[in-house]
Automatic annotation (TrEMBL):
Gene3D superfamilies reported in the protein's UniProt record: Homeodomain-like, Resolvase, N-terminal catalytic domain
Record organism: Paracoccus liaowanqingii
Record GO biological process: DNA integration
Keyword DNA-binding: yes
Gene Ontology MF: a single term: DNA binding
Keywords: DNA integration, DNA invertase, DNA recombination, DNA-binding
Occurrences of domain Resolvase/invertase-type recombinase catalytic (ranges): 1-137
List of catalytic residues: 9
Protein name: Recombinase family protein
Length: 184
């Protein structure tokens, strides 16, 4: 059985999710597990866990891109171990990799290492760029949103509203409400 897994990081990436689903169905997937959740918190990826639980011997898990499945080489190996221990295979469409073959397994390890290397280089460049911008006084960071609402917070507090009610009304956290009130 061919089992597909599609994922986007945010809820507003519907076009990307639809494209993945289309490609997975085109590849012949009998069942597709879909979710919209960040890969940073791997414990939140319930549909991936369900797909890995669903896989049986002889099945193939298909993803459109490697980054839709795993965040790091270590995480990729964890997933691949689960798949392999069940007697199943992994296929990545855009890379043409199929772990049911020895060459596919080799290529997956190589490409996974290259992908992780690329990500670490990109993050290093990003950190360097931020440091340079800060040194030149061009990087200000994110503008504080809660403190710009402090007058409204103070007014609602004066009207007898609770911190939770104020937070909901203004659209900030309860902790931010307390910070605004502490400066009051």
């Amino acid at each position: 059985m061919l089992i597909g897994y599609a994922r986007t990081s945010t809820l507003d990436q519907t076009a990307g999710l639809e494209a993945q689903q289309r490609d997975l169905h085109k590849a012949g997937c009998d069942k597709v597990f879909t979710e919209q959740v960040s890969s940073v918190d791997v414990t939140a990826r319930q549909k991936l866990a369900e797909a890995l639980e669903f896989i049986r011997e002889g099945d193939t898990l298909i993803v459109t891109k490697l980054d839709r499945l795993a965040r790091s080489v270590a995480h990729l190996h964890e997933i691949l171990t689960v798949i392999t221990n069940k007697g199943a295979a992994l296929k990545i469409l855009d890379m043409g990799i199929d772990t049911s073959t020895p060459t596919g397994k080799l290529m997956l390890n190589i490409m996974g290492g290259v992908a992780e290397f690329e990500r670490s280089i990109m993050l290093e460049r990003q950190r360097e760029g931020i440091a340079k911008a800060k040194a030149e006084g061009k990087y200000k960071g994110r503008a504080p949103t809660a403190m710009s609402q402090s007058e409204k917070v103070k007014q609602l507090h004066a009207d007898g509203k609770t911190a939770v009610q104020i937070a909901e009304a203004v659209g900030i956290s309860r902790a931010s409400v307390y910070r605004c009130l502490a400066e009051y």
